[in-house]
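COMPLEX REQUEST
Ligand: iron/sulfur cluster
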Amino acid sequence: MEHTEKPRILFLNSPYLLIEPFHQHMPPLSILYLASYMEKCGYTPAIYSLDTFAQLGGMFYFGYNLENLFKQIKEMKPQMIGITCVFSSRWPFTQRLTQVIKKAFPDIPLVIGGIHPTTFPEHCLTSSSADYLIIGEGEESVIELFKHILANTKPYGVDGIVFKDEDRLYVNEKKHFIPDLDQIPFPAFHLVDEKTYHAIRTQDRISQFKGLYFPLLTSRSCPNQCTFCNMYLCHGKQWRSRSAENVLAEIDYLSDKYKCRQFAIVDDNFSLSRTRTIAILDGIIAMNKDIRLITPNGLSVSTLDDEVVKKFKRAGALEICIAIESGNEEIRNVVYNKRIKTEKVYEVADACKRHGLSLRTFFMVGAPGESDSTIDESIQMMRRLRVPTYINITTPYKGTQLYDYYIEKGMIKKEDVEAGFSVDLRLPAEQLANYENIIIWRRRLQIANIRYSWPELLRSPGFLNLNSLARLISGIIFPAKITHERINFVLDKYLSLKNS
Ligand code: B12
Ligand code: SF4
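STATUS: Structure written out below.
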């Protein structure tokens, strides 16, 4: 990292602990976009990627070698450090990282952002050593904040900011979202070490992607109101999209600069506008660059039809994912408010078959009202579809209708959710009253997944890996849990306050 005369900001990803070695070598888009926006505004951002990996029993830790990190900070002398917390499950590590950095560099202003700080702004600011917290979309607010830091003034009027002044906590609501996303430069991939992104090897067991790929975010937010989704807290309720031309220019640029043809579209709702979807897919076809696509965040089933599926295939999609969530219509459409008829699921699946496009699906387990018979219906649907499925435990994030329901029924405690002990990625889930049932139901879905989709699974490079297969089987038989004790063990070992 070079030390230049322009004001400097260092962005960091949060460390994390998983029960799968699922590491995104590319830093999250949050800091890649924040960095590119800061660069556009004349500042000098840098990104220091996670540099430490450790296997601890059945767990996988991705974090920092603190000695190296501190050396970078001393060399760069940033005027601000920003840390992103993109998943609630990372909060205990983000929180500790702020404490460790603050102890070693008390004069550098620390700012945090991302979904968990956005969901619990007061808690996250007061329980960490961050000086500032940005609620939701951060490009514009962080620039305003940085100007205040450089001028040594307090950011009272900045949109979506939380900070302390004297003993008072200021919480400015998030009101403004960037209307024209084409104004934001492409993510700052050029700030990431080559060896970091070249380490990208998808360890996803189900996808057909292999090797280097770039994430593409072509729109922000989604107008649907699924009862388990709190994404709108970060990006508002209105869908905002980049133009097809802007998206195609990014694909063209990245494929030329990095000689990479693989792109993962990670939008919340990529295909909401049929006209824009077709324009993007036609544009990719016209490029004639042998581009390959996947959609790991899922496409909204209602936006797909025969024509769109055909275009995806022609544009180079290796597979598309759709979020079905349950085979039971009541759970899907009443409990989750997905508004997808079973016939529509089959219509899209049949279109994929017709056009030779592989399909992946998302199912969830553990909704209020879930029972042996609703699980039977999910299994029946899996048998009819015969495609690989990602199975997740229904998680009541704050800001969702499901959260209100779980709290009202006493099924979860607010403090547990606040502390980041969410059930995503099988974090301590014993807080859920019917946890034992959920584990049994999930096992049934996992077995059905292998039973009905094995010919397709065998085409996924990650599935054939022996380690991965061993983990899959042991995960079904002995589902691993990340407990509070294990988290504390990792915090003490890798983010100890004694070392800073
Ligand atoms: C892309 C994506 C993924 C990708 C990659 C994620 C990554 N590591 O980069 C993949 C497909 C791998 C993925 C997987 C999962 N995901 Co996901 N994912 C998303 C998605 C759709 C977009 C994230 C993104 O890149 N946004 C674009 C950037 C620009 O926005 P942003 O991250 O919000 O950042 C902005 C602001 O928050 C703020 N900001 C953020 N950080 C910082 C830091 C500072 C200093 C400042 C100032 C500001 C700031 O400014 C940024 C720029 O505007 C979000 C939903 C969403 N729209 O955010 C879900 C989301 C993050 N995922 C979610 C979940 C649950 C998962 C899974 C756990 C699902 C599962 N059960 O398997 C897995 C976890 C995987 C893992 N390894 O941990 C949840 C997280 C909920 C939570 N509270 O934890 C979300 C919010 C969707 C939802 N509501 O359900 N996901
Ligand atoms: S379709 Fe996806 S992004 Fe939109 S509300 Fe539902 S879960 Fe959230």
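REMARKS: Confidence is low (pLDDT under 50) at residues 423-429. The first helix runs from residue 29 to 40.
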